[in-house]
């Protein structure tokens, strides 16, 4: 009983922390404040799959979907999957079901996510129109 209560408190803490980060990102523009920069970009000069995602999430919080997609298209396209995972996780948590029953714990989905992420990283660093279109602006 005490262990289950600690688990619920942990999830409430995670939810509170997530809401706190959302408030932080809503109020502070990552382009203007000293948020951490991408170490991969600093070391290699290449864009990683996450480059531009801080500014993209800030734009999404302000309802600027087009700007967010221009900063990191993969981050914007992954939001429905994250939402499905959050809803499935919350539903399982409330029903007392194990998390591994959720759709996000399927092995094929993990491989798809890895493949799409690697492909996105390669495409956004290619010279030419595709690289320019997918690079953070």
From TrEMBL:
InterPro entries: DUF2752. Keywords: Membrane, Transmembrane, Transmembrane helix. Pfam families: DUF2752 (PF10825). The chain crosses the membrane at residues 9-28, 69-88, 108-126. This is DUF2752 domain-containing protein. It comes from Hymenobacter lapidarius.
